[in-house]
Amino acid sequence: MTKLKAASISVYGKVQGVGFRYHTSKKADEYNINGFVRNKPDGSVYIEAEGEEIDLLAFIDWCKVGPQWSRVIKIETQTIPPLYATDFQVK
Predict the structure, then answer these.
(1) How far apart are CA 64 and CA 71, in angstroms?
(2) How far is CA 51 from the centre of its chain?
(3) 16, 43, 60, 89: least surrounded by Cβ within 10 Å?
């Protein structure tokens, strides 16, 4: 069994009302990432993601840009304990 890595990702900028969560879910599927994404009251998007390290890093790189209509100003990532999630959910 391979060792999974997990991270929390907070994305700031114009990231709500632009399909960010939907596109994040699609990218998570592409990169075999499990976890969830949700909007935060402060206008940011919060993600908990888990997968192979190389896939997780590629996913985080995508989060730095986001979908076409978003404007990511900054992201904050932190290593977290394994999630043991079995899918990726939009909350």
Answers:
(1) 9
(2) 11
(3) 43
